[in-house]
Specification:
The protein is α/β, with parallel strands linked by helices and 599 residues long. Helix content is 36%, strand content 17%. Helix 16 packs across helix 21. The structure holds 4-methylsulfanyl-2-ureido-butyric acid. 4-methylsulfanyl-2-ureido-butyric acid binds next to helix 6.
C-alpha cells in the first residue's frame, strides 16, 4: 500500500484496500496479505493525547464486524479469497495490541490472530521536534499469543498449508522465525511499516543521505526475509505500507514473496498501491526441511540455553579484570557502560557450578539420557546435571519391591565411591517411587537428596489443591498409593490411574500408542478433579508435552525430573544439608566397627 495520510478518511483507505483485494482475486490469488495497521496511517509516529482521537485508530470487538474493517472481510468472502491484515486492536479487557488476523473466506471466520511481540521504539517521544517517533511501546502492550502456527484448510489445491504471522519488527528476530519453523511453518506472513530516512529511530547520523538510508533499510528488510525464509525452509510474504505519509515520513517499499531457498519470487516495483502474485509450491519446502534444516536431526538444544534465559548481552569477562581479581563476574561499574549485566551470575559460588548427580537406579541408560534431555534446557548457567545409570545386577526396570531393593543395592555400591571422588552438591533419584536408594543416600551423605516422586508431589501441592498421578502398571498404582500415604499427601490426591503399561513399554511400544494411552489417563484424572498431574515414571519424562495437550491449559503437568533438579538447586543455594540427628544419621561408622565394610 502506498502513502496513507493522517487526514485520509477511513473510507478512502478502505476503498483502496478493496481495490487491491479485487486485483489480487483477478489474478487468481487464493490469499492476499495487507500491511501492518493497514486501515489508517501509522499513528504511533504521533504523540496523541486526545483519547477519542487515539481510539479512532483502533478496532473494538470482533474485527470482522467492526464498521471500519468489515467491508474488507465481506468482500474477501464474496471473492472467495483469504485475507491477512494488520490492525490496531482493543481487546475485550481494554488492552491494546498491534495485531493481525488470518480471515478464511470459505468459512467466513478468523482462523488465527497474532499480536505483535517485538514492539520497537519508545514510550516517550524524542526531544527533537523534527524527529520521527515510533511510540509503539506507548500505545500497545507486547503480544500475548506467542508465535503459533496454524493450518489453513482447503487452500493450495486442497492441501492444508502451515502458516504463521509476524508483524514488522518481529521479522528482524530469528527467535520469532524459529518458533514458527519448529512448527513446520510453510508460509510466514508479515505486514510491515518501515521508516526509510529516520536517523533518530535507527540511531544513525542525521547528516546521512536520505536515499542511501532508504537503500540500507530496504537491504535489511530483504536480508531478514530471505535469510530467515531459507533457514526455516519456508515461503514468506511481506507487505509494506510504503511511500511518503503526510508528505513527510518516508516509508520503504520492498514487499516481496520469498521462496524456501531464500530466493525472491516476486517483488513490488513502486511505493504505490500495487499487487504482486506468486505461486507457492509448498513441496519446495521439503528439501530444506528434510536435509539441511531437518531440525530433529541437527539441532543441539543443549547449547541454546542462553537464547531463552538471557535477554541482554553478557560479554566474557575482560581478560585484564579476570586475571586481576580471579572472579568472572563483572561489577556494574566496570561493565563498559553497556549495563548488560547477567540476570544471574554466570559462575557463582566462587566460580564453582552447582553439580547434581541424577541417579537412575535401573540399568537402562536410555532412560537416564531422556531424563537429562528433559531437564537440560531448563538449567541456569551455573548448574550442571550429571547422569548415572546403575550397573548390573540392577534390573533394567523397577516394577516391584524386588527390583526396588536390588536396584538400590547395586546403585548405592557404585554411587558411594563416585560421590567420594566427585563431591556432587545434591542427588536426585530418578525413579518415581519411595525408592530405597533415597534413604540410603540420605544416610550415607549429607548433601540434599530427593526422589522424583517426592519432588513432584511437593511441586504439585504448591501449584494446585488436588493432584493426580499417571501410573504405568496396575501394580505401580498400588505402590504409588502407599507412597502417597507415606508422604502424608493422601488428602490432596484426586486419583492415581494406570496406563496398564510396563516401564519398558514406554520405550518399546509405538510412541503414538503410548502417548494416546497417557492422554486418555490424563483426561480421566482431570475429570476426577486433578488440578495438577504428575507423571509416575522417570521413563515418562519426555511425554510431558503430550500430557499437557490432553490436560488443557488450566491444568498443570509436573515433570518430576525437572521439579526434583530445581528443588535441589534451591536447597543447595540455601546451604541446606541432610540433618544427621535422627533417621538419617550415617550407619557407616557402625558398619566399620562391625567389620562390615564390604560395600
Ligand atoms: N513498525 C515497525 O515495527 N517498524 C520497525 C521500525 C523499527 S524503529 C527502529 C521495523 O522493524 O521496521
Amino acid at each position: 500500500m502506498g502513502a496513507t495520510h493522517r487526514t485520509d478518511p477511513r473510507s478512502k483507505t478502505l476503498d483502496r484496500m478493496l481495490k487491491l483485494l479485487q486485483d489480487a482475486a483477478d489474478q487468481s490469488a487464493e490469499l492476499c496479505l495487507l500491511p501492518e495497521t493497514a486501515f489508517a496511517t501509522f499513528f504511533p509516529r504521533y504523540l496523541i493525547n486526545d483519547p477519542e482521537e487515539l481510539d479512532a485508530f483502533f478496532e473494538h470487538g470482533d474485527v470482522i464486524k467492526s464498521p471500519g474493517a468489515a467491508p474488507l472481510f465481506n468482500k474477501a468472502k464474496q471473492l472467495g479469497i483469504d485475507v491477512s491484515v494488520g490492525f490496531a486492536e482493543v481487546a475485550d479487557n481494554g488492552e491494546r495490541f498491534n495485531s493481525s488476523v488470518y480471515y478464511h473466506a470459505l468459512t467466513g471466520s478468523i482462523l488465527a490472530k497474532y499480536r505483535k511481540i517485538h514492539l520497537p521504539g519508545d514510550f516517550e517521544p524524542f526531544a527533537d521536534p523534527e524527529a520521527t517517533n515510533q511510540l509503539e511501546k506507548r500505545y500497545f502492550k507486547p503480544g500475548n499469543l506467542g508465535f503459533e502456527a496454524f493450518r489453513v484448510p482447503d487452500l493450495a489445491a486442497g492441501s492444508e498449508p502451515i502458516m504463521g504471522m509476524m508483524i514488522c519488527n518481529d521479522r528482524r528476530w530469528p527467535e520469532a522465525w524459529r518458533c514458527l519453523g519448529l512448527q513446520g511453518v510453510e508460509i510466514v506472513l508479515c505486514g510491515y511499516n518501515t521508516a526509510g530516512f529516520a536517523p533518530h529511530l535507527w540511531g544513525s547520523d542525521a547528516s546521512q543521505d536520505p536515499k542511501q538510508a532508504e537503500e540500507t533499510a530496504l537491504f535489511h528488510h530483504k536480508l531478514v526475509m530471505q535469510s530467515n525464509s531459507y533457514m526455516n525452509a519456508t515461503f514468506s510474504i511481506s507487505a509494506a505500507r510504503a511511500g511518503m505519509d503526510d508528505g513527510k515520513y518516508a516509508l520503504i517499499g520492498g514487499s516481496c514473496i520469498v521462496g524456501p531457498e531464500g530466493n525472491i519470487l516476486a517483488e513490488t516495483k513502486t511505493v504505490e498501491d500495487e499487487v504482486i502474485v506468486a505461486d507457492c509450491d509448498l513441496e519446495l519446502c521439503r528439501q530444506g526441511k528434510t536435509r539441511t534444516f531437518d531440525f530433529s536431526r541437527h539441532r543441539r538444544v543443549e547449547h541454546y540455553k542462553r537464547i531463552v534465559e538471557q535477554t541482554g548481552v553478557v560479554e566474557p569477562p575482560k581478560l585484564s579484570e579476570a586475571s586481576s581479581n580471579g572472579a568472572s563476574e563483572v561489577p556494574s561499574s566496570l561493565s563498559n557502560g553497556t549495563h548488560n549485566l547477567p540476570s544471574r551470575p554466570a559462575q557463582p559460588r566462587g566460580g564453582r557450578k552447582i553439580r547434581i548427580l541424577l541417579c537412575n537406579p535401573n540399568a537402562t541408560p536410555s532412560m537416564t539420557a531422556n531424563c537429562i534431555k528433559s531437564v537440560e534446557s531448563t538449567l541456569p548457567l551455573d548448574v550442571e546435571v550429571v547422569g548415572f545409570t546403575a550397573p548390573p545386577p540392577a534390573p533394567s526396570a523397577i516394577e516391584g519391591n524386588f527390583d526396588n531393593i536390588m536396584s538400590a543395592a547395586a546403585a548405592a555400591r557404585a554411587i558411594i565411591p563416585l560421590q567420594q571422588r566427585e563431591g556432587y552438591d545434591a542427588m536426585l533419584v530418578a525413579c518415581f517411587s519411595d525408592h530405597a536408594l533415597i534413604r540410603m543416600l540420605r544416610e550415607e551423605f549429607n548433601v540434599p537428596v530427593i526422589g522424583i516422586m517426592e519432588a513432584s508431589l511437593f511441586a504439585a501441592r504448591t501449584l494446585g489443591a488436588r493432584f493426580g498421578i499417571v501410573a504405568t502398571s496396575n501394580r505401580s498404582k498400588v505402590m504409588h498409593a502407599d507412597s502417597v500415604r507415606h508422604y502424608g499427601m493422601q488428602d490432596f490426591c484426586a486419583g492415581i490411574e494406570s496406563c496398564r503399561l510396563g516401564v519398558l513399554d514406554l520405550e518399546r511400544r509405538p510412541r503414538h500408542e503410548v502417548l494416546a494411552i497417557m492422554q486418555e489417563v490424563a483426561k480421566t484424572l482431570v475429570a476426577g478433579g486433578a488440578e495438577v498431574l504428575t507423571l509416575g515414571c522417570a521413563g515418562m519424562t519426555d511425554m510431558v508435552t503430550a500430557v499437557k495437550e490432553a490436560a488443557g491449559e488450566d491444568v498443570q503437568v509436573v515433570d518430576g525430573v525437572v521439579a526434583g533438579v530445581h528443588h535441589l538447586v534451591g536447597l543447595v543455594r540455601l546451604g541446606g544439608k541432610t540433618a544427621k540427628s535422627g533417621l538419617y544419621a550415617s550407619s557407616a561408622t557402625g558398619r566399620k566397627l562391625r567389620g562390615q565394610e564390604y560395600i
